[in-house]
Amino acid sequence: MALTPDALHLQAEERGERLQALYRLALEIAELHDLQQVLDTALKHCLELTGSQFGFIGLNTPDNSALDVVAIQGFEATPYFYEHFHVIPLRPSVFATAVLENRPARSEDATTDPHRIGQPKGHPPVRAFLGVPLRSLGVPVGMIGVANRPGAYSDEHEHLLMTYASQVAIAIRNAKLYEELSAAKADLERQVAVRTEELKQAQEELAQHAHQLRLLLAETVTAQERERARIAHNMHDGANQLIFGALLEVKAAQERLAQGNSERVGAALERVRAVLREVDGEIKRIIYHLRPPTLDALGLPAALTRYAERYMVFARLPCTVQIAGEPHRLDPEMEIGIYRVTQEALQNASIHAQATSTRVTLTYAPDAFRLSVRDDGVGFEPERVLALREGCLGVLGMHERAQHLGGTLAIKSAPGQGTEVVLDLPRAGRPETAPEQVEESGDGARVASYSHPRR
Fold first, then answer.
1. Fewer CB within 10 A of the terminal residue: the chain, N end or C end?
2. Is residue 22, in this structure, part of any structural domain at all?
3. How many angstroms separate the CA atoms of 431 and 326, rounded?
């Protein structure tokens, strides 16, 4: 039946209006970035374009085995219904044809359609139905389904929905990319913030460390100058005076030889020999303060035992040296470091702790070494004292030695509970024969008693 000119004109106007509406809708969804807004807006316009009562948009699950209904309009799905039925298995049916066969699917009445496989309880009856695939690069990634318009869906409805579906697919892809980009940006900003904070903390720690090193360097230089002055003073008052006395005795012996008084020459030379023995002893004493020969000759336990004996004399503070495990020689640099840390810890105990006794424990293990210096003094709060920094250069020096040796140093103390300095080092020794005399103490630890390892 031929259409009249008026009918053709009306039909053309309707098509033009639909195309204009399609264009406006495409622009609207293109401006959206939130995926759910894109889905809801697109579905609303699909219902309007086709005059449908009910509709949904489904996207394929990652394994393409089911359809996840991500937007639904036309009836209020209860939370229970949506939670249990939003995932629809992709199997041959009047609804899934659009995805499985990548083509539009229509039915005048889905309730009597031969491909119908039923619907969940609580779902409104679906009569007239139109479904079109959502495609990405030609491959179906989901579908748009509309249903229950007053009459059957026509080819024109199918064409409009297919055209709009291509725009929706692009908008969905863009929204997903935008979400991924936003998530990546947020993650990057978080990582930058974390890294910035880490760098800030590292910078502050480096600045504090540099300040500590400057203080330690200044203290070291001062200590070196004091030590040089002490050595010069000792040499002047000790060895130098003795040598001068020996020279006088030699001169006297020469004069007596010249006078033929040989009887008194022997006595003068004997006095020279005695003075030179004193010179030798004085030089050895000075050398011992620079680096104890016992440390190199007999090892750490013997050196610390002898140091403890002198410490008890000069500090008037009892000091016990205990050894646990099988002693063996360590790296020379490590041994002198342990010796200096022990000296510093005991010196602090004698000056600050008001202690009545001290104990040094050396623990030898197959893969590690531990030094413990403990006193029963008044104790203190390590965190508060260390925060002062400038007032605890000795402690900072012990920490620096521990780090230089590749170990860690901990100070355990509390008011009224004494103090323990613990130095833990990895094994870096050269095993040798254990000391000859090692006695068991009452608590199972072994106490060195002039223990000299054989070399």
1. N
2. no
3. 10
